[in-house]
Amino acid sequence: NPVPVSVIGLGAMGSVLATALIENGHPTTVWNRSPEKADPLVEQGAARATTVTEAVQASPLVIVCVLDYKAMYELLDPLCDALAGRVLVNLTTGTPEQAREAAAWATHRTIDYLDGAIMATPPAIGRPDAFLLYSGSQSAFERHEATLKLFGDASTYFGADPGLAALYDIGLLTSMYMSFTGFLYGAALVGTADVKATAFAPYVESFLDGVVRGGMGQLAQQIDEGHYPDDASPLAMQAAGMTTFIKAFQDEGIDVEILQHIKGLTDRTVADGHTKAGLASLIEQIRTRRLVP
Ligand code: NDP
């Protein structure tokens, strides 16, 4: 029998999560600060809770998906014991530290806490390739795995450290933003000769597919081993190349700060004696820069 689930927060994301539950036969109770957002879900078969307490008390599994952690605490902190003994799955985006604090907050109230990060847009929820990342209570994940996989079949549980889902989330999104931004810079550069972005994109796609995708595994292995053999492209040579790239951007009068930053990481790595190392050695500068305020 599908477990009853309560969904708190019916924004773009929470509404779609609730719909997936309703469509799969879960008795679903919904609550939102602006109550009208519950209307379409009630029409689909959800029960409307008039207070957060009522929503929480309706189900052993409570999902919260609101704007940020501040909103989450505003809603859940005043509840006294209503959440005790229940599973709370927090799909609100936050930092690893916020997730760990929330887990401690929950443990103090005997709430079984699972933190989640949604690696999908609302329309993708429920599609087989959609995935969410989970960490925190293993028993909560295992008990509700089938229900949680309704949102994305490719979802993964990373371990008991509640911060892991948020760490992966931000790590993945950082990789995404930097990849897309890299393309924007390339498009701006070729655009100075009236090359259309749509004409440039296929080259970037195949280049990323080959060189970047193909090189990722090797980079990862080198990072893990702390050993960065040069692989025929020693860093000192790459640093010289970067000077050329920066000049090309400057010649066209377009923004060059990101490239200068990468060149800075490279120069400092070379100055540390890694002249013959490969690109993976930049990780040491990236890591130690966290010590600089
Ligand atoms: P929306 O802006 O559509 O909805 C925000 C929700 O938070 C609404 O239900 C809103 O209530 C509620 N809320 C905000 N502040 C408060 C408050 N102080 N008290 C009570 N409720 C509050 O955002 P989404 O639904 O898109 O996002 C929700 C979470 O999901 C976010 O953490 C987001 O990062 C994450 N997420 C979203 C993705 C997306 O593509 N949309 C993708 C991955 C993660 P009200 O309706 O009353 O304003």
UniProtKB/TrEMBL annotation:
InterPro entries hit by this protein: 6PGD_dom2, 6PGDH_NADP-bd, HIBADH-related, HIBADH-related_NP60_sf, NAD(P)-bd_dom_sf, RedAm-like_C
Gene3D superfamilies xrefs: N-(1-d-carboxylethyl)-l-norvaline Dehydrogenase, domain 2, NAD(P)-binding Rossmann-like Domain
UniProt keyword list: Oxidoreductase
Domain 6-phosphogluconate dehydrogenase NADP-binding: 5-159
A molecular-function term among this protein's GO annotations: NADP binding
Top-rank taxon: Bacteria
Domain NADPH-dependent reductive aminase-like C-terminal: 161-287
Pfam families: NAD_binding_2, RedAm-like_C
Family the UniProt entry places it in: Belongs to the HIBADH-related family.
Protein name per its UniProtKB record: 3-hydroxyisobutyrate dehydrogenase-like beta-hydroxyacid dehydrogenase
Origin species: Nocardiopsis mwathae
